[in-house]
UniProtKB/TrEMBL annotation:
Assigned keywords, A-Z: Membrane, Transmembrane, Transmembrane helix
Organism whose genome encodes this protein: Nonomuraea recticatena
Alphabetical list of CDD domains matching this protein: MFS_MJ1317_like (cd17370)
Subcellular location: Cell membrane
Name used for this protein in its record: MFS transporter
Topology class, membrane: Multi-pass membrane protein
UniProt domain Major facilitator superfamily (MFS) profile: residue ranges: 18-393
Length: 393
């Protein structure tokens, strides 16, 4: 079923109802998760006293744990043809972990364990959710469908830091932030159960959905190249918390305003997600993905040069609009329907492992050499990846 009524510059877009339902689930869930994400870097580094290297290890755990479970989740979802079920388990696990953050208190070890469990939930849900989006839309409108979903998701990313700021302002207690985040996450699970529909199962022999069959997807040249490009660029993509810590350090923004920094990124992402998705459908998804990483190089340069915070956040928002959903839209149509979840999980796993390594490397570089030399190396790495892609393609 499609729902019409979205308009952009006079153009009406027909959006699958399942995409809208998944977008609403992501909107609510992102309010919950971004409440925590907005305060966690400040809480860990400036309240618990973690060094940049220690936080880099914690942030690397954020990406690394998802890499461990993505492939298993994708395989299970395709083998059982139950993508909604696997995604729901991931959403539920992440919801419970919000209470675990409160129980962790000031223990860095327990905090790491809860973050690992929360990221396990994200690893379980991401590929099945994206597969449901991809299977709900036509091949010609993948960029648009992911753009609409990511726009709704970003509304949550915009509201989450505001909610965290309001709760901290009213109570001054991080525990209250975690409890409110838990209650909102539960609402997201309820919306998934009530409104998201499983796609009709693809009738294939059960033995066809096996791990070696998933790995064999890399034999398809176009999909293999996208996986290599995403992993290579992930290896030089500094994670959001480091960007915001650098921005706070460089501009002297008051610590109590730190949770508001992601709002600038989210606002630009929200405005651009749909039009950039439509542009990717017309111009080419991989070129738009690469353009997004050119913007990321600009972010590094602006951070190193002490640019105003609004400019950094604006360019960072464009980076996300041109890369996040666009990558999934580029890869989805290259994969057979009955292996769509497994294939997207394979792509996301390579990217997550690369970003885990990047967080650890950049945290070490900041600790031993300062923040700017690490940015120079990461920016040079992006340029090298893009140049290499142009040569081999």
């Amino acid at each position: 079923m499609y729902i019409s009524g979205f308009r952009y510059r006079g153009l009406t877009m027909a959006v699958p109802a399942n995409v809208l339902a998944l977008g609403m689930v992501s909107l609510v869930t992102d309010i919950s998760s971004e409440m925590v994400t907005a305060v966690l870097p400040y809480y860990a580094v400036l309240v618990l006293g973690l060094s940049p290297l220690a936080y880099g290890l914690l942030d690397g755990l954020y990406f690394g744990v998802t890499a461990v479970v993505r492939l298993a989740a994708g395989h299970a979802a395709d083998r059982w043809q139950r993508r909604k079920l696997v995604a729901g388990l991931g959403y539920a696990l992440s919801a419970v972990c919000k209470l675990g953050l409160m129980a962790a208190g000031g223990s860095v070890g327990l905090l790491g364990a809860v973050v690992a469990a929360d990221r396990t939930g994200k690893g379980l849900r991401t590929a099945p959710r994206d597969a449901l989006i991809s299977l709900s839309a036509s091949p010609e409108t993948q960029g648009q469908a992911f753009g609409v979903h990511r726009a709704m998701d970003t509304v949550g990313a915009f509201l989450g830091p505001l909610a965290a700021f309001a709760v901290l302002g009213a109570t001054g207690a991080y525990d209250v932030v975690f409890v409110v985040s838990f209650a909102i996450a539960v609402l997201g699970v309820v919306l998934l159960v009530l409104y998201v529909r499983e796609q009709p199962p693809v009738v294939v022999p059960v033995p066809a959905v096996r791990p070696r069959v998933t790995l064999a997807l890399l034999r398809e040249p176009r999909f293999r190249r996208i996986c290599l490009l995403a992993a290579g660029l992930g290896l030089v993509t500094v994670s959001d918390p480091f960007v915001y810590l650098l921005l706070q350090k460089g501009t002297g923004i008051a610590p109590e305003h730190f949770p508001l920094l992601p709002l600038g990124t989210a606002a630009v992402y929200l405005l651009l997600a749909v039009p950039v998705g439509r542009l990717a459908d017309r111009w080419g998804r991989v070129p738009v993905f690469m353009l997004g990483h050119v913007a990321l190089v600009c972010v590094y340069a602006l951070l190193g040069g002490g640019a105003p915070y609004w400019l950094v956040l604006g360019v960072f928002g464009f980076f996300y609009a041109a890369t996040d959903g666009v990558l999934m839209a580029a890869a989805g149509p290259l994969l057979p329907a009955h292996l769509r979840t497994s294939g997207l999980a394979l792509l996301q796993t390579g990217q997550a492992v690369a970003r885990m390594l990047c967080s650890i490397m950049y945290g070490a570089a900041w600790t031993f050499f300062g923040p700017v030399p690490g940015l120079v190396v990461m920016g040079a790495g992006i340029v090298a990846c893009l140049a290499f892609w142009k040569v081999v393609s």
